[in-house]
Specification:
Shape: elongated
Largest sheet: 2 strands, antiparallel
Structural class: mainly alpha
Strand order of the largest sheet: 1-2
Radius of gyration: 34 Å
Distance between the termini: 89 Å
Helix content: 55-70%
Number of strands: 2
């Protein structure tokens, strides 16, 4: 276990040195005498490990909070057209293509 931790620390140091350099990953590996595929493996592993630690820390700070799956559906379409309702209780539903002059005549006749 201590050996694994020492190896992690060693690779974390390599990655930190690379981040502080102005070199690409490949150029850094060539300069430091490291195998690129091994460097890339440890870089990815340490990023994943850090991600898990950050997630755990976030959950510890906010216990009881969790993401839940949801199903998103489209909203029901709004009714189209016009509805007239009188104080006497009758309703008149008109389609949206009703001509304004016809509607004006109708309203004057009420």
């Amino acid at each position: 276990m201590k050996r694994d931790q020492a190896k992690r620390q060693q690779w974390q140091q390599h990655i930190t040195q690379w981040q502080q350099s102005a070199l690409s990953q490949r150029a850094f590996c060539e300069h430091a005498g490291l195998k690129f595929s091994t460097f890339d493996y440890w870089r990815r592993a340490l990023i994943a490990e850090q991600s898990v630690e950050n997630k755990s820390a976030s959950q510890a700070q906010h216990p009881g909070i969790a993401l839940l799956p949801v199903q998103v559906t489209s909203a029901p379409s709004a009714p189209t057209g016009l509805m007239l309702r009188s104080p006497q209780g009758w309703e008149l539903r008109l389609p949206p293509e009703v001509k304004a002059d016809w509607l004006s005549d109708l309203l004057r006749g009420l």
